[in-house]
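Students often ask why we bother encoding 3D structure as a string. The short answer is that it lets us treat folding as translation between two languages. Here is a chain of 142 residues written in the first language.
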Amino acid sequence: MELLAKCSLALGNQVALTAGELLSRLKSNPGTKIAQALKAIEQRPAIKYKDGVEHHSYIFAQLISSYAQTPKTFGGGINVDVCHALQEQYFNLSSKSRSQVVQLHSHPTVPLVIQSEFLFHITSQPVRDLYKEKETAVQLFR
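And here it is in the second language, the structure alphabet:
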């Protein structure tokens, strides 16, 4: 987790990719560990690119993308605690990462109550251009 918070900008994406894969293989407390990883990324100094996107969002995207692509995640489902950790950070994520979080929550092994809670969470926020995937999420959970 310390590497995610303190490594160089160039190394940050690679560390996030590796961390995502390692986190997806954890058997105990995966929700707590992914929450710690997301918090570590959040503590990095913010760097804005020309398009106004902060560097945090790219590292968040790498971590979540790596976590989501691991066969265990899709084959065996997603841990409920991980769902909660991702839900807490949802509005801090880039559009691509938010889409991946929506897909993870729509996995058939995620309990309906967790899916409903997540859907309520993301649809209760005011609509902004940044959150265009909200309509897609509503369609996925119908």
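Translate back mentally: The two ends are 37 Å apart (CA to CA). Keep this in mind for the problem set.
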